[in-house]
Design goal:
Number of helices: 11
Shape: globular
Order of helices and strands: EHEHEEHEEHEHEHEHEEHEHHH
Strand content: 15-25%
Bound molecules: NADPH dihydro-nicotinamide-adenine-dinucleotide phosphate
Helix content: 25-40%
Strand order of the largest sheet: 2-1-3-5-6-4
Structural class: alpha/beta
Distance between the termini: 40 Å
Radius of gyration: 19 Å
Number of strands: 12
Length: 301
């Protein structure tokens, strides 16, 4: 029987994950399909319940359900618990297990960017949404000693810092108000800058001006494209990386969880690039055009 994996999100129409995961199944000759399920929040519970029936290997979960899905699974891994978000579901019999593969996905991307240098200990993170949570959890686990979070709505940044207060008790994790001068002062003391906002996703905008970037910064943008932030960082002499490595590696980790097999990274990367070149615009974690155009939701929504 053909095995099924589904992506549950809203909207999901142009998911890059579909191309990437189907290419992986096909390359390894697995009789499996990756289906896109567009489900509203009201339909989420029923959709997740269906995964318990025969034939499903599991699922990916994306915006806007990553946090909402947590109470619908039977158990969660340490990463999913720590971030409060699930992006991958596997099955143990009829039981559903929630994972967060954005965490290992970000770790691979960070390791690649740092390369042979010593892992830095200070970082600035822009944003406090689901992506930022995976980033901050990874940085805490990686042994960072000082992580400063800037978010447009300060209270959401503060809520995220509070969420991690126990695991970050040994270090300096704090949220600061989004003022260019404060960001500039922090950047002069840091080595890693991560953009986990969606600024630059749909328009050629940058969260911070290039003039405040110093040449020794390592700049990672979670957005899977050559954003203005990255272009300006390169101009300033920084090493940079886009969200491609994170996207690929969160997908690879999910693939291995469903199939027990090593993910064919080259084929998945090629499928991602082909889909991107063909105009597919929605990566996991990236709001679709319609959603991104909606006004910001209040914190905790
Ligand atoms: P969320 O919607 O949860 O968070 C969006 C973040 O962007 C919030 O911090 C929000 O601030 C901020 N933001 C949005 N618009 C503006 C603006 N105009 N000015 C200032 N801040 C703004 O999204 P995610 O965390 O899931 O995703 C964030 C980005 O990370 C997306 O671009 C997504 O593509 C990327 N991502 C990439 C992944 C990958 O695998 N490469 C994985 C996960 C995410 P506020 O709280 O004030 O609204």
């Amino acid at each position: 029987m053909t095995k099924r994996v589904v992506l549950i999100g809203h909207p999901v129409a142009h998911s890059l994950s579909g191309a990437m995961q189907q290419a992986a199944f096909d390359h390894l000759g697995l009789d499996a399909t990756y289906e896109l399920w567009d489900k509203t929040p009201a339909e989420l519970s029923e959709a997740v319940a269906e995964l318990r029936t025969e034939g499903f290997l599991g699922a990916n979960v994306t915006i806007p359900h990553k946090e909402r899905v947590v109470p619908h699974v039977d158990k969660v891994t340490e990463e999913a618990h720590a971030t409060g978000a699930v992006n991958t579901i596997t099955k143990e019999g009829k039981k559903l297990v929630g994972h967060n593969t954005d965490v290992p996905g970000f770790k691979v991307a960070l390791d690649k960017l740092v390369g042979r240098q010593k892992m830095p200990r200070h970082a600035v993170v822009l944003g406090a949404g689901g992506g930022a949570r995976a980033v901050v959890h990874s940085l805490i686990r990686e042994g960072f000693q000082r992580v400063i979070v800037f978010n447009r709505r300060l209270h959401r940044g503060e809520a995220m810092v509070k969420h991690f207060s126990r695991s970050a008790a040994h270090m300096d994790l704090r949220a600061m108000p989004w003022h260019e001068s404060i960001i500039e002062a922090e950047l002069s003391k840091t080595k890693v800058l991560v953009n986990a906002t969606s600024i630059g996703l749909l328009a050629d905008e940058t969260p911070i001006p290039g003039e405040i970037l110093t040449p020794d910064l390592l700049v990672l943008d979670l957005i899977y494209s050559h954003t203005r932030l990255l272009r300006e960082a390169e101009k300033a002499g920084c090493a940079t990386s886009d969200g491609g490595a994170m996207l690929l590696n969160q997908g690879a980790a999910a693939f291995t969880l469903w199939t027990g097999q090593a993910a064919p990274l080259d084929e998945m990367q090629a499928a991602l690039e082909a889909a991107r070149a063909g105009g597919v615009t929605s990566a996991e974690g990236e709001p679709g055009v319609a959603e991104a155009a909606e006004p910001a939701e209040p914190a905790g929504a």
